[in-house]
Amino acid sequence: MARRSRSTTLADEPFDERILDLDVGEEMRQSFLEYAYSVIYSRALPDARDGLKPVQRRILYQMTQMGLRPDRGHVKSARVVGEVMGKLHPHGDSAIYDALVRLAQPFTLRVPLVDGHGNFGSLDSGPAAMRYTEARLASAAMTMTQSLDEDVVDFRLNYDGREREPEVLPAAFPNLLVNGTAGIAVGMATNMAPHNLTEVVAAARFLLANPQASLEELMRHVPGPDLPCGGRIVGLEGIREAYATGRGSFRTRAVASIENISARRRGIVVTELPLGVGPERIRERVGELVRARKLQGVADVEDYTDATVGTRLVIEVKSGFDPQAVLEHLYRLTPMEESFAINNVALVDGQPQTLGLRELLQLYLDHRITVVRRRSQFRRDRAAERLHLVAGLLLAILNIDEVLQVIRSSDDTPTARTRLIDVFDLSEIQASYILEMPLRRLTRLSRLEVEREQAELQATLEQLDALLADEAALRTQVSDELAEVAAQLGTPRRTVLMASDGSAAASTGRSNAATSLEVADTACLAVLSATGLLARTEGQGVQGLSPAAQGLAALAAAQPAQSRARHDVVASVVGATTRGQAALVTSHGRMIRLPVQDLPALPPSSGYLSLAGAAPAAEFVDLLPGERVLALTSLAGPEHTAGLALGTAQGVVKRVVPDYPGGADAWPVIRLADGDQVVGAVELAHEDARLVFITSDAQLLHFSAASVRPQGRAGGGIAGIKLSQGARVLAFGAAAHSAMDTATVITLAGDTGSLFGQVPGTVKLTPLGQFPGKSRAGAGVRCHRFLRTETRLLAAWVGPGVPLACSETGEAVALPTHLGKRDGSGSDLDGAALAGLGVALAC
Question: Is pTM beyond 0.85 here?
Answer without folding.
Answer: no
